[in-house]
Amino acid sequence: MSRADTQEDLNAVIRQHSELLAAQLHSQRESLFPPDASKSMRKFTSGEAAALLGVNDSYLRKLHLDGKGPSPEVSSGNRRHYSAEDIQNLRVLLEKTARKPGDYLPGRRAGDHLQIIGVMNFKGGSGKTTSAAHLAQRLALTGYRVLAIDLDPQASLTALHGVQPEFDLLDGGTLYDAIRYEDPVPISSVIRKTYIPNFDLIPGNLELMEFEHDTPRALVDKREGPLFFARISRALGEAQGRYDVVVLDCPPQLGFLTLGALCAATGLIITAHPQMLDVMSMCQFLLMTSDLLKVVRDAGGSLDYDFIRYLVTRYEPSDGPQTKITGFMRSMFQDRVLTHPMLKSTAIADAGLSKQTLYEMGREFFTRSTYDRAVESLDAVNGEIEGLIKQAWGRT
Ligand SMILES: Nc1ncnc2c1ncn2[C@@H]1O[C@H](COP(=O)(O)OP(=O)(O)OP(=O)(O)O)[C@@H](O)[C@H]1O
Ligand SMILES: [Mg+2]
Asked: Residue 379 Cα, ligand 2 centroid: separation in angstroms?
């Protein structure tokens, strides 16, 4: 047998495996989200709907009995369930008779600037996508108009929202199309509606890598138009009237896309898993970022933020070393570390495995105490970030 017969063709093996994987992922999506492989949002119990609206359940029941607003689905035992659309319609109804304008529709008012929140850290697996997805969904469910953007070529945020890059994004459709140097398209053409009211998505895929390749060439050629760090900001400017908050899920690297996100952002959430290696890597991230930002600022980039916060992720309060490192971070960075950490929870990990956030899954799928503890932690983190947004708009 000649050597050529026994040698494997790397390219052929990789191609075959990628095709096998893509087909498997597609059939997984079909089985996870029947009948048409597209996701939908679950219904919410009357208690959950009341909490999202900030009213009492008894008041919600009265509205239903008086025939006001959308009719919930009533199941055995007189239990009422509301869709996310019902909740949004109730919000609009309640706002009409609100004591203060904005009690139920909390988004921007005249003069409030668009909040662009970058979730970043170049440490892989520090919880960026999980934090970004839960933040964006929670804000949408509580009445903000949200645009979530996947800036990571690995496209985890995209997959989490039921879009499979290998099947659904064959002709582009990522932010790259709107920020590229050659014939950029209007950002509106890459924005997709999702199964959650108030929540739009710009998906990502490998094409985003092109921006990393194009940029050095554009710099050498001294191309006309905004420089790399101003391109995301410019593109978002076109859509700014349509949203209250934009959430950017950044890739685990400090490339041109992340620098563009840094310059577009009005607020930063730096996710940090409290372990020694992660903190050391974060130290590198901060040093490199500060060097690069100096270059960007000298070239005219804007770096003013309403807030910069560290979020402790996958936190286990019973783990001694983790509490020590968290304490260490708090003593160094003080108020810049969010008060609430995101707890590590099997419920959050399990939801992720079936391509969902915990907000998309009902309590019935988990041990109640596990579910409640995880949701409480997520709500606390997201509520704290919502507070920072409101503060930036001058509200108390
Ligand atoms: N609070 C949590 N509890 C349990 N598991 C979590 C939690 N947060 C994240 N995870 C899990 O940890 C893994 C990494 O999280 P995630 O994808 O959010 O990190 P990331 O920073 O976006 O990663 P990457 O750098 O690859 O983009 C995922 O499998 C996710 O389900
Ligand atoms: Mg990620």
From this structure: 20
